[in-house]
Each structure stands twice: as structure tokens, then as C-alpha cells.
């Protein structure tokens, strides 16, 4: 009960601060702005809007970390807000003055250790200061250089109070203003709140770092962070120091005697691997979070915010990328509907035509000529116009690709993005038809067949015994109707078996030249498919003969 009261008091306190700042920046015209959102404007109105959006940004900056981060999240949603407001959101910076703390005393209090037993050096001047945490360089007694990430005092309570208040405000706006309902701001906020709460947890970040390192443990192109669990908790994180330069610092990369194009290739391939293979990817890959080491390895830092996908989500994403690259609008829309959390498409043919027009833009492949940001902005607009709400990982993926595109423009504008993705598409296709993948996908079905075969003899034997004893009765009603119905079911069953047999045979023909173990010039997978086709066909003939008899 005390915890609830404390949260409510904190929310009231933040609400008072909110009203004070809104009054300071003159938001008495906020209601008029919402009411007249769709009205046509003159040049004078455009100037007034620009001034209004600037005041929005300045108010957000003064409101603190939660609002700044929400504004940064909204800066990627060009489908929801006017371009002038998006430009102001993009100006929001998460750099704040460092908090004065006694670092050694703080470490000893948090970890219940004696600092000299573990650290030989600690720099008391933070190398970076953000709204949630600030970071320091240190050196362990074993000689390793490390980074200490220290959470700001009281930040958790501030963020939680802000989130409670923001949720109330957005629900109020959603109930009273159709424009807010139309942009699904509540869904955007829910996803943001979940992500921010995960970012507040250093325990969660530890797990992300460890999983990320396991995923890339045998990759020579990347260096991953190491976490020191014995020197970390939910308020303090000790990780290995990675020496390098920002991924977009072309001059520094060249000074390290490396080729920017090669570095970009590595970075892009590593990000594709995260998305399409691991289903676990960095949610904010801006240049400040990607380093290039003197040895030419790529390092992704700050794993507080990541996107995670289930195996089914990953399969659907693979389908989506395949259809996107090969410009198959119909299958793209069908996959989109499977991926979506909510769909309300008024005219599917119109949507399909719009996607086809968008996909035609991809005919120009190079980054120099292809505006990826505009392409994804159009994609987001199509989703919003058709009231399609996607899972959060899709929006994070779009954001990640746009950020990677920005890095690509700085390092090598002529890089061919489509050519970079196609090898992954070929790999996905090969994996999908591999015997191992087929077995993995159908192991549940095979188990059910085994269970059925195991349990079938006993019931069947019971039926025979009842027939022999004269106790088996058959109650037939609506004889003619049931006769035609049974005939229709039999015909459908035979047609399905014929279709399965034909599909297996055609599949065997398609993969006959697949590079793998072969016998007499025909791949092993083809032999398997031909054998299955023959078995189904034999069963079909026996079944048809039995029915005719």
C-alpha cells in the first residue's frame, strides 16, 4: 500500500512540474492545435506551426529524460507527425550535465566490496553522461581496462512517475481527440514504456550482452563486450573497455589503415546476421554505438535496448524480406497481415497496388540513388493509412535499417544494398528446404503420427471383438444424403492425396541438381521426395481400388 501511495505522490509531483513547464512555454493554444490539425494553412500558419513545434521541443527538453527519450522515439515516425515537428524531435539530445557522486563510496555501497581489492585505477571524471546513467573508465587489478556504467540516483522513480503520468495523458487525448486515435499513439507509447523499463534494468543489459556475445562467439569480424557479473548489479554495470573509433569517422578509419568500404561491408553483414539469423538485434545502431577497432573489428556497444523475435516472428520476417527484395506485392501484403497485431484494410487491392509502386522504386539499387529513408517513410504511411499495427520489432528494424543507411551514405554512397541482402535470401531458401529444417518443422506432426500408430491397434481390436460377439451396431440416418456426402468426402480425400503426390514429385524435380550428396547424379533430397511421392501414390491407388470393390 505504501508503494502505491509513493508512486501516486511521485506522479502528482511530476504532474505539477509538467503543468508549470507547459504554462511557461505557453501551451494554452494546444487544444486549438489539435482541433485544427487538418485545416489548410497559409504561409503565416506555417510560421506559427514552426514556432509552436520549437516550443514543444524546448518543453520536452526541460521535462527531462523520459520525455526526451519519447521524443527521440517519435522522431522516427514520419508517418505520424508533420515533418516540421519531426525535425524538432530529431534535435532532442540525451546529453545532460554529469551528476556529482563519490564514485568509490558508491561502488563499495552497491557491491559491498573494498574497491582496492578489485580496481587499481578509477577515473572520477565521467567519459559520457546521459539521462539514465553516466560512464567512467577504470582498470582492474588483473590489468583489464573496463567501463563502469552508473545509474543516476532516483532516475528509476522519476521514469516510473513520468510513465504513469504520460499514460494518463495519452488515454485522455485518445478519448477526446480523433486525430490522436488515428495515429495509434497509445500503442506507440506502450512499446516505448516497455523498452524504457528494460533499458532501466542493468540486470537486463547484462543478459543482453552475454547473449549477444554467445551469438557471435565464432565470428572473426566482431569484438563483443564482456560483462563482469561479480562487479555488477541493477544499478552498476562493469563491462570490458573497447578501444576504437566511431563507424562514421571515415578519416579515423583510414588513419587506422583500413578501407571504409570493407568496414561498411562487415558492419552491414553483422547487422543482417543479427536480424535474419539470430532474431536478436541492436535496437539503436547509431554511429555512437558502433566502433571500429584498430584491428578492423566491429563493436556494437550499449545493449540496453535490443529487439527480440520469436522463431515464428523470424520466419515471417524472412518471408517479408524475400518478397520485398523480389518485389512480390501480393505475397508481401499476405505476410504483412500475418505479422500484424491489428489489421483493418479497407481496400486490399488498392494497398497491393501501392506496395507494387513502392517496390518498383527498388529498381535503382545504389545508396547514392535510392533514398531508403523515403522508402521506409512511404512504407510506414501505408501501414498507418490502412490502420495496420505491427509488432514493435518491425518499427525497430525499420529504424535500424535507416540508421545503417545513414552510415552507408557517409562511408560508401555507391554500396549496393540489394546485392548485400540477396546472399542471405539464398541462404534462407536453402535452409528452408534442407532435410534437417523439414524435420524440425514437422517433428510435432511426426510425433502425433507415432502416437496414433501406437494407440490405434487397441481400439481397432476392441471393435473386431464387438463385431464377433454380435454387439456392434451401426445407426444410419438420412441414407441418401449421407451417401452423397460420403462420396464427396472420399473424392476430396483422393484429390488431396493426388495433389500431395504430385507436389512431392515436382519438388523432387526442382531440387534434383541441388549441391549435396547425390546418387546417380540425383540429389539425396530428390530421392527422398520421389520415394514419398511414390508411397502416397501407391496408397492412393489402394484406397481407390478398395472403394471401387
Automatic annotation (TrEMBL):
SUPFAM superfamilies, per the entry: Protein kinase-like (PK-like)
Keyword Transmembrane annotated: yes
Keyword annotations: Membrane, Transmembrane, Transmembrane helix, Ubiquinone
Domain called ABC1 atypical kinase-like: residue spans: 92-334
CDD domains registered for this protein in UniProt: ABC1_ADCK3-like
Similarity-based family: Belongs to the protein kinase superfamily. ADCK protein kinase family.
Positions in coiled-coil regions: none
Protein name in UniProt: Ubiquinone biosynthesis protein
Amino acid at each position: 500500500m505504501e508503494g502505491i501511495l509513493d508512486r501516486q505522490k511521485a506522479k502528482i509531483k511530476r504532474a505539477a512540474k509538467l503543468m508549470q513547464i507547459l504554462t511557461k512555454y505557453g501551451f494554452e493554444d494546444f487544444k486549438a492545435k489539435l482541433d485544427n490539425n487538418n485545416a489548410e494553412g497559409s504561409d503565416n500558419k506555417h510560421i506559427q506551426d514552426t514556432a509552436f513545434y520549437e516550443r514543444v521541443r524546448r518543453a520536452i527538453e526541460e521535462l527531462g529524460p523520459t520525455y526526451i527519450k519519447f521524443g527521440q522515439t517519435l522522431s522516427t515516425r514520419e508517418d505520424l507527425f508533420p515533418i516540421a515537428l519531426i525535425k524538432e524531435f530529431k534535435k532532442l539530445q540525451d546529453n545532460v550535465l554529469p551528476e556529482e557522486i563519490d564514485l568509490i563510496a558508491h561502488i563499495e555501497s552497491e557491491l559491498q566490496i573494498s574497491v582496492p581489492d578489485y580496481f587499481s585505477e578509477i577515473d572520477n571524471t565521467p567519459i559520457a553522461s546521459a539521462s539514465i546513467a553516466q560512464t567512467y573508465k577504470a582498470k582492474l587489478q588483473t590489468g583489464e581496462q573496463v567501463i563502469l556504467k552508473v545509474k543516476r540516483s532516483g532516475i528509476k522513480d522519476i521514469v516510473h512517475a513520468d510513465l504513469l503520468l504520460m499514460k494518463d495523458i495519452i488515454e485522455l487525448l485518445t478519448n477526446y481527440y480523433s486525430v490522436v486515435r488515428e495515429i495509434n499513439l497509445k500503442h506507440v507509447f506502450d512499446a516505448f514504456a516497455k523498452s524504457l523499463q528494460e533499458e532501466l534494468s542493468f540486470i537486463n543489459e547484462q543478459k543482453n550482452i552475454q547473449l549477444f556475445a554467445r551469438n557471435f562467439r565464432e565470428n572473426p569480424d566482431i569484438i563483443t563486450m564482456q560483462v563482469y557479473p561479480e562487479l555488477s548489479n541493477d544499478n552498476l554495470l562493469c563491462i570490458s573497455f573497447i578501444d576504437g573509433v566511431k563507424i562514421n569517422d571515415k578519416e579515423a578509419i583510414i588513419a587506422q589503415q583500413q578501407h571504409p568500404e570493407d568496414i561498411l561491408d562487415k558492419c552491414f553483414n553483422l547487422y543482417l546476421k543479427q536480424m535474419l539469423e539470430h532474431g536478436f538485434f541492436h535496437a539503436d545502431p547509431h554511429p555512437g554505438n558502433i566502433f571500429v577497432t584498430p584491428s578492423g573489428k566491429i563493436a556494437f556497444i550499449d545493449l540496453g535496448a535490443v529487439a527480440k523475435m520469436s522463431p515464428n516472428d523470424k520466419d515471417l520476417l524472412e518471408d517479408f524480406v524475400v518478397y520485398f527484395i523480389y518485389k512480390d506485392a501480393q505475397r508481401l501484403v499476405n505476410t504483412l497481415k500475418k505479422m500484424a497485431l491489428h489489421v483493418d484494410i479497407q481496400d486490399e487491392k488498392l494497398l497491393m497496388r501501392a506496395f507494387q509502386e513502392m517496390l518498383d522504386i527498388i529498381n535503382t539499387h545504389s545508396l547514392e540513388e535510392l533514398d531508403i529513408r523515403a522508402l521506409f517513410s512511404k512504407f510506414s504511411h501505408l501501414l498507418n493509412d490502412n490502420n495496420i499495427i505491427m509488432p514493435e520489432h518491425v518499427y525497430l528494424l525499420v529504424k535500424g535499417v535507416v540508421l545503417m543507411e545513414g552510415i552507408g551514405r557517409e562511408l560508401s554512397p555507391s554500396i549496393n544494398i540489394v546485392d548485400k541482402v540477396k546472399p542471405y535470401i539464398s541462404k534462407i531458401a536453402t535452409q528452408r528446404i534442407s532435410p534437417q529444417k523439414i524435420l524440425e518443422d514437422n517433428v510435432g506432426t511426426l510425433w502425433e503420427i507415432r502416437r496414433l500408430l501406437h494407440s490405434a491397434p487397441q481400439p481397432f481390436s476392441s471393435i473386431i471383438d464387438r463385431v464377433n460377439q454380435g454387439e456392434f451396431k451401426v445407426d444410419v440416418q438420412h441414407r441418401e444424403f449421407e451417401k452423397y456426402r460420403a462420396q464427396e468426402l472420399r473424392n476430396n480425400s483422393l484429390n488431396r492425396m493426388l495433389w500431395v503426390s504430385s507436389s512431392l514429385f515436382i519438388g523432387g524435380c526442382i531440387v534434383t541438381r541441388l549441391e549435396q550428396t547425390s546418387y546417380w547424379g540425383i540429389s539425396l533430397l530428390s530421392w527422398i521426395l520421389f520415394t514419398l511421392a511414390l508411397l502416397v501414390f501407391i496408397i492412393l491407388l489402394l484406397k481407390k481400388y478398395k472403394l471401387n470393390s
